[in-house]
Amino acid sequence: MKRTLLTLGIAAALLSTVPALQARDDHWHDDDLRSDVHSLWEWYGHLHDEANVRGGRHVRDELDDIRRDLKRVDDELHDRHYHGDRVRGEIDGIRDELRHVNSELKWHGEVHHRSGFTIEFH
Question: In this predicted model, what pLDDT tens digit does every residue of 83-120 receive, in sequence order?
Fold first, then answer.
């Protein structure tokens, strides 16, 4: 009987730590998402600067849409009721949009270079 009670006590103690472990994992997951969003903001800023130099109106419009999406995701991350999986999907979508804009800007740089302008794109 004492052994059963001891076993149940140990099991209860272990189970009581599970939410704390889960909360700690969620905290690290949140930090990863925030870090990703911060990196995307930096990438957005770089592309925005490039677009001001050589991007067309279409590219700047795309970047405005991306800025709105980044702001919405940033706000969701600071909302205590957000859903991490949905935010992760939105972050991946924004990353794809930034890649697309990056390709367009690179293409614009190559076209200007062939036209006699010297533009370096890193």
Answer: 777 889 999 999 999 999 999 888 766 544 444 444 44
In angstroms and rounded to an integer, the radius of gyration of the C-alpha atoms of the chain is 24
Residues 35-47 as b or e (16 or more Cβ within 10 Å = b): ebbeebbebbeeb
Q: How many CB atoms lie within 10 A of CB 82?
A: 15
Residue 3 in domain: no
106: containing domain: 25-114
Does residue 98 fall inside a structural domain?
yes
Sign of torsion over alpha carbons 8, 10, 11, 13: positive
Sign, CA torsion 108/113/117/119: positive
Cβ contacts of residue 37 below 8 Å, gap of 6+?
70, 73, 74, 77, 91
